[in-house]
Design goal:
Elements (H helix, E strand, L loop, with lengths): L1 E5 L3 H13 L3 E5 L2 H10 L4 E6 L6 H10 L4 E6 L4 H9 L4 E4 L4 H14 L5 E3 L2 E4 L4 E4 L2 E3 L3 H12 L7 H8 L9 H18 L4 E4 L3 E4 L7
Parallel strand pairs: 1-2, 1-3, 3-4, 4-5
Antiparallel strand pairs: 6-7, 7-8, 8-9, 10-11
Keywords: DNA-binding, Phosphoprotein, Transcription, Transcription regulation, Two-component regulatory system
Protein name: Chemotaxis protein CheY
Pfam families: Response_reg, Trans_reg_C
Length: about 220
């Protein structure tokens, strides 16, 4: 499960990141809105933790996250003790509201609950079903053998259907240390998708957009 922490308090942000990583979550930490928007543009998150101070809450960010990725859960971590702020957050689309100071055990339980009972991340397009949680692909009732990074590349592109995604964006979204790998790993993953899915099934799931990247284009029959 991938989590984005948006928290201006560096000490709290680092503490939350450490706790989540120790509990097997993949985490990114944004200390300002610029970094937050960068991460949200390049990666898919199961959960976003948003830290609020005592000033006017940024409810627009919640709406933006839900608009672009309605399956992503949002939990607000707020210094504001007022009931009105909690109501405003929940009405804006937040899935939960926790007041600071944060109890780490309670936070972990609330996160587990939201991810367990949240909206399914399963992608269904006509007869193609992609289940990221179980790393499973079903087409016309038959399971397709595609695992590891090729599966993650296919899933990321499917989540951004009809959008052009560059190699750099794929590297940042999927590889933990993208600076340590070369862009040709994307070409290898795409080739495996085409060899294991497209050719045997006589379909096209991903098309190459010259000099720009790749686009998920299913359904598109090979002529």
């Amino acid at each position: 499960m991938r989590v984005l922490i948006i928290e201006e308090d560096k000490i709290l942000g680092n503490t939350l990141e450490k706790v989540l990583v120790e509990n097997n979550y993949q985490c990114d930490l944004a200390e300002n809105m610029g970094d937050a928007k960068y991460y949200l543009d390049i990666r898919n998150y199961d959960l976003v933790l948003i830290g609020w101070g005592t000033g006017k809450p940024n409810t627009a960010l919640i709406a933006d996250i839900k608009k672009e990725a309605h399956k992503t859960s949002v939990i607000i971590l707020s210094e504001d003790p007022s009931k009105e702020t909690e109501i405003e957050a929940l009405r804006s689309g937040a899935d939960d509201f926790i007041r600071k100071p944060i109890d780490e055990d309670i936070l972990l339980i609330r996160i587990e609950a939201k991810l367990r009972f949240g909206i399914s991340n399963i992608i269904e397009i006509e007869e193609l079903i992609i289940n990221p949680e179980e790393e499973k692909i079903i087409y016309q009732g038959n399971e397709i053998e595609l695992k590891g990074k090729p599966f993650e590349v296919l899933t990321h592109l499917a989540m951004h259907k009809d959008q052009i995604v560059s190699k750099e964006q794929l590297l940042d979204a999927i590889w933990e240390e993208p600076e340590l790998v070369t862009p040709n790993v994307i070409e290898v993953a795409i080739n495996q998708i085409r060899q294991k899915m497209d050719k045997p099934l006589d379909i096209t799931t991903i098309e190459t957009v010259r000099r720009r990247g790749y686009r998920f284009c299913f359904p598109k029959k090979i002529s």
